[in-house]
Write a structure and sequence with these properties.
heterotrimer; A mainly alpha (301); B alpha/beta (523); C mainly alpha (289); A: 301 residues; mainly alpha; MetI-like fold; B: 523 residues; alpha/beta; 6-stranded mixed sheet; 21 helices; globular
């Protein structure tokens, strides 16, 4: 056995060599700059540089937590994050399963291409489109007019913000999100389906017993990655959908920091908030990763 | 075996490329801020200047605009392309450059960065340099304004660290469709009641004559901006939709928390409810609102008077109608003194790097001196022949905007040191025959607007009074409450809640600082 | 195989739903296309919804006549292609060892990768670091920072983990080393995930604007997205005495619409070609053979 183990060790070294470029990249482009995140604990000034800027400990975090609007902003972020996870996340999976059932390849290709298109429109454009859609002369008010309802300017009503957020997320990114799942489905051995059909299994059973279980590891990984970004809701989207009238439900950490930190080049504060978001995201990933290990062989590490 | 070698080679290759690129670039990326730089062969010096650029080309060494500026102003101006993006990106890039020790020689400050620049000794003390080396600048700006700049010195030593922008006339007014008034047989309203009656007539009597009730009597844009005229009649100091500081009850106060503002919001809410304000006002972007004005739908708007010619020409192109806009006199309201806010102080225009290189420092001052020489202004406005303007029938006419061929006309003192006469003269001398009708209307309005303009007490206040209260600076609370009150989502009583919140979240402190500043300036 | 009526109805229902969804997905694009083909007056008056009004090619002519836009276009094609290839190689090279349990550093590195994904470095240190390795005002900055993305890396690793073990065992017994294993067996059979990541990396490279914004000074090296942003006027700045633009038949909004479409078209064209890699049974025959 010892001889065998020694022989295997001699064989392992290519793996370590392969990993070198990646490690170098991570160090240079990710970890060295990340070291600069220490400015969250300083009063960073571009004139004094990293070393000379004074330490202020948790001052910026305190500023964040003490702000009268923090509860609201944090609450909104949680709410939207939750919506994103529960409503928006499952959609691409469902879509992928559905697309998989389309037989005619031309139709299948057409649908897939169409579904990917919204992803390429920036949120600035999509925001503009949504504002038009909900304007007085927009499609939404025309349709509800058919039902005899009074026109509603949805973009300035806080009740509409969260549904619009969720639906626009789905509309824009669900199609794109199916890419990974389609790739995973294509890796499933067709023989499994053939034997299932011979056994008389219906389509629904096939999906339940073959497709979905084999898709699960991928779904799980993507879920974990999504959770890692739990508080990171996509500044672009919310910023372009937000109006002062919907601040009470739509103002999130990112938009708040943009107004008070980024626009005024307050790097320390902006970094502190970002750190806060990341730490929470990481804790969540850690917890769910442990849980996922119990359910399947998956998990991130 | 081969594959293994190939993979190793590739990994090495990638690293190699980066290193080579690294070696090449790091040798050229050094800053040249210390020691004496060599001047050009013709004795001129090149300096790096940063300013507003909304998409035009950069000015590089040897380019047309570079040569033009060198010839007219005696200094080589290098202006790299820095995306403006509302100032946010510009500020970011500026900070990055400072962090990398490559601050430009001359640039426009943003968001109060001039204060930290001054405190850290990064920009030059201009108190003595300007009168000595750039007398044109010194004399172009009135003494009392220099005194305010001295009072704004963050180091408290009464030094001058920036060159302020100056606007010597009132730029803003409410504009109303005179041709609609004429058509409906109405006289120009003088009081608020008359004004409301006029709005109602606009709404109901189809002045644009298309048989549809699509008129928008008045309106504004998102964040409750650009509807200043509704606030002006209550004496609320407001600049481009942002509340300002003026004297209320004998003391310098933020207009947003005064009883005047309360009354104004109540009035605006009433107008909204009765459909006299565009229902989409608070969602209107600039494009949308301008589009409505230019579709012959709006009876009364508030904006820069001198940009009226663009509106007129687009209106005519879109609908064929030659509109006639006149200045709306501030409608009188019992118990209030109305006015259109005027600020002589525009945001700080230039700061100069505290250059160790004497040549560059002198060149910068020389450049500024020549920019502020009125004799050069016409040429600076016109730019390079063939690129920015052309000669039509012997008259110089500006060419249309073309971002991919025109270099950024960075130096435009006529807009940072604006006087009524010069601006009007500029319009008249460069207008074409076709646009004369619009230009005449605009110049007429510009003169008329002066009757209602009043300089506010808070003019020239530095941004540093808002230090560590970014939300007060950003008006976050105000915008949220004002918009909801106007829409009717909040009753007017909520206003009192707003004032309390504003005061406790920093407004009180900011007010104290503002009043201290004002007292200092008064001396 | 007899399909029940219920199954047929289900499939039809699904198909209809997908078609409706697809239509909802394309409509806004059609609206943007229409805006680009409409005259400026009509757009200004907010009259364009789904179809072009006062059809004109002027906005497109303006764009197509810009040599700097084309230069930018081809430059971006180049950086996207090169960048994507490099990224795929780099990611595969890193994902493979990470997917092997015999790689001792695997778990630690994965934690680091997740950290790298979740924690974002502030702009100033990032700028200074990248600058210090010589990527300031260097066109390589359009490629190098993008060749490894933690998210994509994790996806590829997940796929590699699901690679059938029997194949690898067989190859090992024949004396195959890891490098050969990766390049001769694993990659050719991972076309689906390679196509997926090619799409992901490609789109990021094609759409990038942050890196050129901060790191490139020479506008000749500007990729497409930054060039396009130049066409969008900044509303916050007003200059006195701007020139008359009355006689032009395009304005900011029509130009913006046209440039958006201009940037999207290549992606839409490329995608169908990648689709063939998403075919079922890409691994057919490999286990048997």
């Amino acid at each position: 056995m010892k001889v065998f183990a020694f022989h295997r060790l001699k064989v392992y070294w290519p793996l370590y060599v392969m990993a070198i470029p990646g490690i170098v990249f991570l160090i240079v482009f990710k970890f060295i700059p990340l070291g600069g995140a220490v400015i969250a604990f300083k009063d960073y000034s571009v004139f004094q540089g990293f070393d000379d800027s004074p330490w202020v400990g948790l001052k910026h975090f305190k500023t964040l937590f003490d702000h009268p609007d923090f509860a609201r902003v944090f609450g909104n972020t949680l709410m939207l994050g939750f919506l994103k996870l529960v409503l928006v996340f499952p959609f691409p999976v469902l879509l992928a399963l559905m697309i998989n059932e389309i037989r005619k390849s031309a139709l299948k290709k057409g649908i897939q291409t169409a579904l990917y298109i919204p992803h390429f429109l920036s949120w600035v454009i999509v925001g503009g489109i949504l504002f038009d859609f909900f304007s007085l002369s927009g499609l939404f008010n025309i349709v509800i007019g058919w039902f005899g309802l009074e026109p509603v300017l949805a973009m300035q009503e806080s009740d509409y913000f969260r549904p619009i957020y969720a639906i626009s997320s789905i509309w824009r990114d669900a199609g794109w999100g199916t890419v990974v799942y389609m790739a995973a489905i294509s890796a499933i051995d067709p023989q499994l389906y053939e034997s299932a059909m011979i056994d008389g299994a219906s389509k629904l059973r096939q999906v339940r017993h073959i497709t979905f279980p084999l898709l699960l590891p991928t779904v799980l990984v993507l879920f974990l990655l999504e959770i890692g970004n739990f508080l990171d809701l996509g500044f672009d989207q919310v910023f372009n959908l937000l109006t002062p009238m919907t601040y009470s439900v739509g103002d999130i950490l990112d938009t708040y920091v943009f107004r008070t930190g980024i626009q005024q080049a307050q790097y320390s504060f902006a970094t502190a908030v970002g750190l806060f978001q990341s730490v929470i995201g990481f804790i969540l990933v850690f917890v769910f990763n442990k849980l996922s290990k119990k359910v399947s062989d998956g998990g991130l590490w | 075996m081969i594959l293994k070698k190939m993979s190793l080679l590739m990994a090495a290759g990638v690293l190699a490329i980066s290193t080579i690129a690294g070696c090449n670039s790091s040798s050229t990326g050094d800053s040249s801020s210390s020691g004496q730089t060599s001047a050009n062969e013709d004795g001129t010096v090149d300096i790096e200047v940063w300013g507003t650029n909304i998409g035009y080309k950069a000015i590089t060494k040897g380019s047309k605009l570079y040569e033009f500026y060198k010839e007219k102003l005696g200094v080589g101006v290098i202006h790299p392309y820095v995306e403006w993006n509302g100032g946010t990106n510009y500020l970011n890039q500026l900070n990055l450059k400072i962090a990398a020790n490559e601050m430009p020689d001359l640039f426009i400050p943003q968001q109060g960065i001039e204060d930290s620049l001054a405190k850290n000794g990064a920009i030059a003390d201009l108190t003595d340099l300007l009168p000595k080396y750039a007398p044109n600048v010194w004399e172009a700006i009135p003494q009392e304004m220099w005194d305010v700049v001295k009072a704004n010195d963050p180091t408290g030593q009464g030094k001058i660290y920036y060159i302020p922008g100056v606007v010597e006339y009132g730029r803003y007014a409410g504009m109303i469709r005179q041709d609609w008034l004429d058509k409906l047989g109405l006289t120009m309203p003088k009081t608020q009641d008359e004004y409301v009656k006029v709005l109602e007539a606009f709404r109901d009597k189809d002045p644009n004559g298309n048989g549809q009730k699509d008129e928008l009597p008045t309106g504004g844009r998102e964040q409750a901006r650009w509807m200043d005229h509704l606030f002006a009649m209550y004496g609320v100091a407001m600049f481009e939709g942002y509340p300002e500081w003026d004297i209320y009850n004998g003391e310098l106060t933020y207009s947003a928390v005064t009883p005047n503002m309360r009354a104004a919001l109540e009035f605006a809410a009433k107008l909204y409810k009765e459909g006299l304000i565009d229902k989409e006002s608070l969602l209107n972007t600039k494009d949308k609102w301008d589009g409505k004005i230019q579709s012959d739908k709006v009876g009364n708007y508030f904006h820069w008077v001198e940009h009226g010619n663009l509106i007129l020409e687009n209106l005519k192109k879109n609908t064929g109608v030659k509109a006639n806009f006149t200045v709306l006199p501030v409608p009188e309201v019992e118990g209030y003194e109305g006015f259109y806010t005027m600020k002589r102080f525009a945001p700080p225009q230039w700061v100069i790097k505290n250059n160790k290189d004497e040549n560059k420092l002198m060149a910068t001052l020389k450049l500024l001196n020549n920019i502020y020489d009125k004799k050069n202004w016409k040429d600076l406005f016109l730019g390079v022949e063939g690129m920015h303007y052309e000669l039509k029938d012997g008259k110089a006419v500006k060419l249309p905007d073309d971002k991919s061929s025109q270099e950024n006309q960075l130096l435009n003192p006529y807009s940072t040191l604006a006087t009524l006469d010069f601006t009007i003269g500029l319009f008249n001398s460069t207008s074409s025959k076709d646009s004369k009708w619009a230009i005449d209307q605009v110049t007429r309005n510009m003169k008329e607007a002066q009757k209602y303009a009043k300089v506010i007490a808070g003019d020239g206040m530095p941004a540093s009074v808002y230090d560590s209260f970014p939300d007060i600076n950003n008006r976050t609370l105000y915008v949220e409450y004002a918009t909801k009150i106007i829409l009717g989502q909040y009753p007017i009583e909520k206003f009192d809640e707003f004032v309390d919140k504003w005061n406790t979240s920093g407004g009180e402190e900011v007010t104290k600082r503002a009043r201290e500043w004002y007292a200092k300036v008064q001396k | 195989m007899v399909e029940s009526k219920r199954e047929r109805a289900l499939v039809t229902g699904v198909t209809i739903f997908l078609i409706l969804f697809s239509i909802a997905a394309i409509i806004p694009l059609i609206s943007v296309i229409s805006t680009s083909f409409s005259s400026k007056s009509v757009v200004d008056m907010n009259l364009v919804t789904l179809w072009p009004k006062e059809f004109t090619l002027d906005s497109w002519k303006y764009i197509i006549d810009r040599p700097d836009l084309w230069r930018s276009f081809f430059l971006t094609v180049g950086t996207t292609v090169i960048g994507t290839i490099l990224a795929l190689l780099m990611t595969a090279l890193f994902a493979y060892p990470l997917s092997k349990s015999e790689f001792r550093w695997g778990s630690v590195i994965m934690v680091c990768v997740v950290i790298a994904m979740i924690f974002k470095a502030p702009i100033v240190p990032y700028f200074l670091t990248v600058r210090s390795i010589g990527l300031y005002d260097n066109p390589l900055v359009l490629i190098l920072p993008h060749i490894l993305n933690p998210f994509n890396l994790i996806i590829m690793r997940t796929f590699f983990k699901q690679f059938p073990k029997e194949l690898e065992e067989a190859a090992f017994l024949e004396g195959c080393g890891y490098f050969r294993m990766l390049f001769h067996f694993v990659l050719p059979l991972s076309k689906a995930v390679m196509a997926t990541l090619a799409l992901f990396y490609g789109v990021v490279l094609w759409n990038q604007f942050q890196h050129p914004l901060f790191f490139l000074q020479d506008t000749n090296w500007f990729p497409l997205q930054i060039k396009i942003r130049q066409f969008i006027t900044d509303d916050s700045v007003m200059m006195a005495g701007t020139a008359s633009t009355v006689n032009l038949n395009y304005n900011e909004r029509t130009l913006r619409a046209a440039t958006v479409i201009f940037a999207i078209i290549p992606i839409i064209i490329v995608y169908p070609f990648l689709q063939k890699y998403f075919v079922k049974g890409a691994m057919l025959g490999s286990v048997k053979g």
